[in-house]
Amino acid sequence: MAELSVNHLLGIKYLKKEDIELIFETADHFKEVINRPIKKVPSLRDITIANLFFENSTRTKLSFELAEKRLSADVINFSAASSSVKKGETLIDTVNNILAMKVDMVVMRHPNPGASVFLSQHVDASIINAGDGAHEHPTQALLDSYSIREKLGEVKGKKVLIVGDILHSRVALSNIFALKLQGAEVKVCGPNTLMPKYIESLGVEVEHNLIKGLQWCDVANMLRVQNERMEISYFPSTREYVQQFGLNKKILDSLKKEIVIMHPGPINRGVEITSDIADSKNAIILDQVQNGVAVRMAVIYLLASKIKQE
Q: When comparing pLDDT for 30 and 96, which is higher?
């Protein structure tokens, strides 16, 4: 059986193209499972997974939990807000205490970039990064690419425009890595103040004009402005942001071609996209949510099969 080249999913930058292909093939299989009347498979009956969320999350956490339960794993949920972390316990102590309960895999979201890499070097369990600060969010990028592949047949050669707060977005960074690895062309679009200094070194072009970017692309991935990560103001006002970088029906209709609209959620309706766009036939936002479960099932299953061999 084909297997992943990695023992953890810490970031897209550690994956090979073959890893992504294997994850997608496995996700295809699980997508069939999810659509059956009985949605569970007994694949991971003897695997215990701990979900450690040191940052708030609704969709990612629910998606992982659902994926784990569909695979029949035992699941422990850990929320940092109500734990000993508040009393000053270190990350290693927290995880070691959880591992003492004989956990095989840890799904972790943490506000500090690199937290999952740090953890993988210090604990004996398979680690899945569910988002570390403004660094990476690998499963989101995988489900985004998977959704593009499902809608357009393949990712290779497609033109993808990522719009919005690139500076604070782990989704943008992981998506750039994943899309480039699969042979897509990528441009980013947003205010200059929300572009990382190193962005062009990743092999992507910066486009400051939304209409031009949309005329170029096959897929537009609209990111929200991450106000919670901003200590200072990066643009004059939300109204001005909307005027320059908000997507509405009038703009979409003016393009004279069909493009696919994506959004990792949560949506700020009326800011990065209007409601009529979010709910339109161009948008595959709910497909992304459904595909998230299948892709996360695939990742968990493939990593767990490596644990079982040890």
A: 30
Stretch 214-224: mean pLDDT, rounded? Answer: 96
Q: Which two tokens mark 111?
A: 């506000």
pLDDT higher than threshold 60 for residue 47 = yes
CA angle 270/205/221 to nearest 5° reads 30
Q: What single DSSP character describes residue 228?
A: G
Question: What is the residue whose two structure tokens read 């968990």?
Answer: 300
Look at residue 239 in the predicted model and tell me its pLDDT: 87
What domains can be seen in the chain, in order of their start residue? 12-136+292-309 (3.40.50.1370), 138-288 (3.40.50.1370)
Give the model confidence (pLDDT) of 226-284 as tens digits: 655 445 566 768 888 899 999 999 999 999 899 999 999 889 899 999 999 999 999 99
Beta bridge partners of residue 186, listed in sequence order: 160
Q: Which two tokens stand for residue 78?
A: 């850990």
Q: Which residue in 280, 166, 146 sits closest to 213, CA to CA? A: 166
In SS3 terms, 148-170 reads as HHHHHCCCCCCEEEEECCCCCCH
φ, ψ for residue 78, nearest 5 deg: -130, 120
